[in-house]
Write a structure and sequence with these properties.
This protein is α/β, with parallel strands linked by helices. It is built from 7 helices and 8 strands; from the N terminus they run H-E-H-E-E-H-E-E-H-E-H-E-H-E-H. It has a single domain, classed as Nucleoside phosphorylase domain (Rossmann fold, 3-Layer(aba) Sandwich), CATH 3.40.50.1580. The relative contact order is 0.19.
């Protein structure tokens, strides 16, 4: 295996349980197994990859979902592996911490950009390259949110590799200075590595906690309540958007450089 194409085509089934030709043209990404299980149950399809690092499922209409795990290293890995598939677009369904008073638990966020605080993306582009979504994917997802009369926020997400920071007042002051609306561990990496691989990308995040205050920090109990209340809606929007964007959405790529 001498080339990147050789490697990712060989590795993708080992990681996800699905070979490169088994995925659909449009792909949902998630960090959570219950999203994949709910998707598989809804479309009566099998979940592939049990026992491996990632799981996946694909319906008969050409929509796939992948649980790639948590963190920027995994996010970069799945986007490199998906270069073997060359999908028409991916949408990340993730959770984030809300950092503004205007972001409450359950609010949806369509990130306009992400700050590359994770470091992983530095292996793909210099720090000056911004982490951006594909505008037309976000425009279409926005239309779907409006069709459902759902409020959503836009703004910049801070992506970090640091999972335990909620006690660190100095870091929290930094987050205030950079004026970000939310924080997660994957969005910037997905945007940058997708860009490096020529894959159109988006992210629909929902606010699962408000970690700038002690009472807003996520606990097992609070996370369970949030999951029960919002996950089905989150997944519904993702499925609806990525099932129809190919037929209803504007053409994503108009020209090649």
């Amino acid at each position: 295996m001498k080339t990147k194409a050789d490697i990712v085509k060989n590795w993708i089934k080992r990681y996800t349980g699905t070979s490169s030709d088994g995925f659909g043209d449009w792909i949902l990404l998630t960090n959570f197994q219950n999203y994949v299980d709910k998707f598989a149950e809804r479309f009566d399809v099998d979940v592939m990859g049990h026992g491996g690092p990632m799981t996946s499922a694909t319906n008969k209409d050409g929509l796939s979902i992948i649980n790639f795990g948590i963190g920027s290293a995994n996010a970069a890995t799945i986007m490199d592996l998906l270069s073997a598939v060359n999908p028409k677009g991916v949408l990340f369904l993730g959770k984030c911490g809300g950092l503004k008073h205007s972001t409450e638990i359950g609010h949806f966020i369509l990130p306009s950009a992400a700050i590359r605080g994770e470091g992983t993306s530095n292996d793909y582009f210099p720090k000056e390259v911004p982490a951006l979504p594909s505008f037309k994917i976000h425009k279409y997802v926005s239309d779907k949110l409006c069709d459902k009369d759902l409020e959503y926020r836009t703004g910049v997400i801070y992506t970090t590799n640091r999972r335990v920071w909620e006690y660190d007042e100095e870091f929290k002051e930094y987050l205030k200075k950079v004026r970000v609306i939310g924080i997660d561990m994957e969005t910037a990496t997905i945007f940058v590595v997708s860009f490096a691989n020529g894959i159109e990308r988006g992210a629909l995040l929902f606010v699962s906690d408000t970690p700038m205050t002690p009472e807003g920090i996520k606990t097992s109990e609070s996370d369970s309540k949030v999951t029960q209340k919002f996950v089905d809606l989150h997944l519904d929007i993702g499925i609806d958007a990525m099932s129809h964007i190919g037929n209803e959405g504007e053409q994503i790529k108009h020209f090649k450089y």
